[in-house]
Design brief:
Helix 4 (about 75-85) packs across helix 5, helix 6 runs antiparallel to helix 7 and helix 6 (about 110-120) packs across helix 8. The protein contains nine helices and no strands. It has helices at about 5-15, 35-50, 60-70, 75-85, 90-100, 110-120, 125-130, 135-155, 155-190. Helices cover about 65% and strands about 0% of the residues. The model is unreliable at about 25-30, about 170-175 and about 180-185 (pLDDT under 50). The protein starts with a helix and ends in a 9-residue tail after the last helix. The chain is mainly alpha-helical. The longest helix is centred in the last third of the chain and has 32 residues, at about 155-190.
Length: about 200
Amino acid sequence: MDEKTEELRDIFMDVTDEETVTETQEATHGSLNSEADVEQRLREVVAQMRDEQEFETALSDEELVTVVRGYYASESDAEIADDLGDADEETVARARVDLHLFREADAPFDLVELRDLLEDDATVADCAAELDASESAVRHYRRVVAAKDAARTVNHRYTDEFENVLRDREISDRMTENVQQDGLDDATEGMETNVSF
């Protein structure tokens, strides 16, 4: 601490009657996040979703976080099921839909057409006949339609939150990597590299 800093510190302590001039700092949303922070934030979003949305999945919040991470890592439902260990692909697909995480290949037919049929109060059997699909497929994709409607109703808030948490982590990883690389480059600049012992 230089002389000016010491003088300012002494003035501050005299004026405020404080014994210390520093305050503890808290990590904010934009700070570099540890893996534990990311995991905790994802669990909080999943728990909030479970409270506010209808979930049919039997997976725990921790398992649902694995589904979220796998989805954003571009893993297939089968790969995510392998990550979970004791879940099958269908369980992962149901959980993913509960989490408002959709894939282009989620329906073998036009979901808009299914939505129109459902709005006209068509039965599952009628929808299956109209779409040339099995009744079990119609029941499954009826859930996808309902989940997409729910996601739209909340303005895709939960998927935005998942993406923000994971993007913050990705940015912090990149920044840390760049700092390490830059530091090494600066430290080795101008050094002789052809040294024999």
